[in-house]
Amino acid sequence: MTKKAESDRTDTYTRITDRIAEDLEQGVRPWMKPWSAANTDGHITRPVRHNGLPYSGMNVLLLWSEQVSQGFASSMWMTFKQALELGGSVRKGETGSTVVFASRFTKSMVDGSSNDVDREIPFLRAYSAFNIEQIESLPDSNYASPIMVRDPVERIESADGLRSTMNGLVCSRIDPPGRDSCAQRYRRGVVGKPDNVAEARVPD
């Protein structure tokens, strides 16, 4: 590996490490996904490329971090060239987000014994991707509305409200000590049975 290639790889690692450290200092954990978004086909669970294929590895952390910090609802990303190929264009003044491509290539070398050997050499290349909210004139299918995620506290309150309206029809699996079991209360008629529910009998 040349000194320039080694320097470029080190610089990329440094930028990524610094970004994650900055998020942590601000109380943001980039590996946690606190939102949901819809896109071309919907049901997106992590950052995806223009063709719907998901990103992997450190790119997931990088793009989640960018999505949170810049407030993007969409989780689809593409390069400048890909946007042009789809008929879109990156808005003037927009800044791309860093993503990386890591792989290996085989190179024939001569070892200390003057023998030809093949060695795998890893490389890391950084490039820029843009969120589709930074791009204009893409097909309408790329601009789906985000799925709103209900606050967990509201969801719990809603569930409690439903339980209270059932007037004791919900029985706990494990009854507290000193209290009648759900089955005993049912047999005595304390717990009502809906008329539209057929009684199930267990064969003797």
Description:
The protein is α+β, with helices and mostly antiparallel strands and 204 residues long. It folds into 2 domains: 3-142, no CATH class; 152-187, no CATH class. It has 5 helices and 5 strands. The protein has helices at 3-25, 58-70, 80-85, 152-165, 182-187, and strands spanning 77-78, 89-90, 97-110, 116-131, 135-136. The strands form 2 sheets. A 3-stranded antiparallel sheet has the order 1-4-3. The chain has a two-stranded antiparallel ribbon with strand order 2-5. A hairpin with a 5-residue loop joins strand 3 (97-110) and strand 4 (116-131). The radius of gyration is 28 Å and the shape is extended. The model is unreliable at 33-44 and 196-202 (pLDDT under 50).
Number of helices: 5
Distance between the termini: 78 Å
> By helix and strand content, what is the structural category?
alpha+beta
Query: How much strand content do the residues show?
Result: 15-25%
Whole-number average pLDDT? 71
Determine the fraction of residues in helical runs and give it as a percent range.
25-40%
Per the principal axes of the C-alpha atoms, what is the gross shape? extended
The count of domains is 2
Spatial order of strands in the largest sheet = 1-4-3
Could you spell the SSE succession in H and E letters?
A: HHEHEEEEHH
Spatial extent as radius of gyration: 28 Å
